[in-house]
Specification:
The complex is a heterodimer of chains A (about 270) and B (about 240). Chain A is an all-alpha fold and about 270 residues long. Chain A has 8 helices and 1 strand; from the N terminus they run E-H-H-H-H-H-H-H-H. Chain B is α/β, with parallel strands linked by helices and about 240 residues long. In chain B, helix 3 crosses helix 4. Classes of the chains: A mainly alpha (about 270), B alpha/beta (about 240).
Chain lengths: ~270, ~240
């Protein structure tokens, strides 16, 4: 056994974070109130810490604009290559949403590999983990930053898609951006989890798409179908069903990935 | 406690007890397990077998906010400035200290733009990011990206980070490496201050002659095992001359 300083010091931090609700009318109620306050405080702290991690990632992205623009340029190039590869303009128009989401998915792997490369360089993420910071805060902070950056890139790609494929947005750009936000959320949470996994192994950049793409099939399908309906119109009122599928995918994967992330981050 | 990395056991049946406020020197040849021992105690690496208790708690529940590690990997973001690197850590630590304070823990990160003076509590060297930068002599370079720093400056920034945390257990892995004479003198001064503050310190080093007089105890690591332990004054005689830098 290896022991350090276990002299029973009373200055431990083992508390639950509750400040105590004094003067409760009954012991049970007092405990429940304290528990409620403790949970509220814990959630508030998680939100604040998530915010700092989120801002840290945005600051890192801002400090190296070259990397971000390379990711965006890669997405533009994919759209351009599809326009060269598919000569039939009517087919190009019909399949534009698929090309658009493939461009976002493929370029997201570049960003995900890069963000974890930065975290692994100098073991910077280890420094954050040992402060200590709750793994859930790291996961949510990084996922939200990824989601924001992918949404931004997706917005930039809309005029490129409209110009290259000669399409119009029938149901409005705001709705398209709504689909984009849900889709970016669907790509970012599993992306951050698998990005960490692949960063820990040799040739992780190759492994990341192999792990991520099969998982993203339902999200990609829902995003493409929803985008098609927004672009061409929705006479059969199918859009809510696809958006519900996307929302369910996000709820499941954001919760599941947050639970698994701590174990992966540990070592 | 033992740890395996890949196929190799890097720590084999290590059993030791570190007394509060003690200074322990960890010596040994390259690859003997010094760094692994410190990293396991810091919570960075899991022990494969056995038990580690830190401040009376299991390794999984170790109070990491009371422990700081200065390692070969400096934990900095190269694209951010020195001040931004410390600022991120300071803000994240502040939230954790608030959580600890609510549970009755000691020590909070000082909110004032202090000059880096030690905190009043036992084992606390609590200071702001600005104070820590001034203390390690990087104030003038605070806005420069860390990627422009020399190895010695990066080391100083690492010292600023661990000092800001104000740990009760400080684990230092080769604290003198890459430092100029001025930086090395700074580390000597820091040791004295830590001693007065009652911080528990473990130092893995090849600078045995320099560190031995400042420590109470020495541990000689030999191929993952504790080869010898005793008074630090005897440390230099136990180590092969070729091992020293």
């Amino acid at each position: 056994m290896t022991a350090v300083g276990d002299n029973g010091g009373t200055s431990g931090t083992g508390g639950t974070g509750g400040t105590g609700a004094g003067g409760g009318t009954g012991a049970g109620r007092g405990t429940a109130e304290r528990r409620g306050e403790g949970l509220a405080e814990a959630l508030s702290r998680l939100a604040v810490t998530t915010g700092w991690i989120f801002l840290k990632d945005l600051r890192l992205a801002w400090r190296s604009p070259g990397r971000l623009s390379a990711v965006a340029m890669f997405a533009v190039l994919i759209l351009l290559m599809f326009s060269f590869a598919v000569s039939d303009t009517s087919r190009l128009k019909t399949e534009a949403p698929g090309y658009y989401w493939l461009a976002i998915l493929l370029s997201s792997t570049l960003y995900l590999s890069d963000t974890w490369r930065i975290e692994m360089q100098n073991r910077a993420m280890e420094g954050i983990r040992l402060l200590p910071v709750p793994p859930a805060a790291v996961f949510f902070g990084k996922s939200l930053a990824t989601m924001l950056l992918l949404t931004g890139m997706g917005i930039l790609l809309i005029p490129v898609m409209v110009g290259l494929y000669d399409i119009s947005v029938r149901m409005g750009t705001a709705l398209l951006i709504g689909v984009l936000i849900l889709g970016a959320a669907g790509l970012s949470a599993p992306g951050i989890l698998y990005g960490l996994l692949s960063a820990r192994v040799r040739s992780g950049e190759v492994l990341l798409p192999l792990l991520l793409f099969p998982l993203e099939v339902p999200a990609l399908l829902a995003c493409t179908r929803a985008t098609t309906l927004v672009l061409t119109g929705d006479p059969m009122d199918q859009l809510p069903a696809w958006l519900s599928l996307l929302t369910a995918f996000n709820l499941i994967f954001w919760s599941l990935c947050a639970l698994l992330f701590g174990r992966l981050l540990e070592e | 406690m033992s740890r395996r990395q890949g196929r190799r056991w890097t720590l084999i049946g290590v059993g030791l007890r570190i007394e509060p406020s003690s200074f322990t020197m960890v010596i040994g040849a390259n690859g003997s397990g010094k760094t692994t021992l410190l990293r396991v105690l810091a919570g960075a690496w899991t022990p494969t077998r056995g038990e580690v208790r830190l401040f009376g708690r299991t390794w999984q529940e170790a109070p990491l906010e009371r422990i700081a590690l200065l390692s070969h990997a400096d934990h900095h973001y190269d694209d951010l400035s020195a001040a931004e690197n410390l600022d991120i850590h300071w803000k994240l630590m502040r939230e954790e200290r608030r959580a600890g304070a609510a549970g009755g823990a000691s020590g909070s990160v000082s909110g004032s733009a202090g000059n880096g003076s030690p905190g009043g509590e036992r084992g606390r060297l609590t200071m702001t990011a600005e104070g820590a930068l001034a203390r390690v002599g990087l104030w003038k370079r605070r806005d420069d990206p860390v990627r422009t720093f020399s190895a010695g400056m990066r080391k100083r920034l690492s010292f600023a980070r661990v000092m800001m945390k104000g740990p009760e257990l400080l684990l230092l892995d080769e604290p003198y490496s890459q430092l100029d004479p001025q930086g090395a003198a700074f580390v000597d001064g820091l040791f004295k201050e830590l001693r007065e503050s009652g911080v528990t310190v473990m130092v893995a080093t090849h600078q045995v002659d320099r560190v031995a007089p400042m420590c109470d105890r020495a541990i000689l690591m030999d191929e993952g095992r504790i080869g010898w332990e005793g008074p630090s004054a005897e440390g230099p005689s136990r180590i092969h001359p070729g091992m020293q830098e």
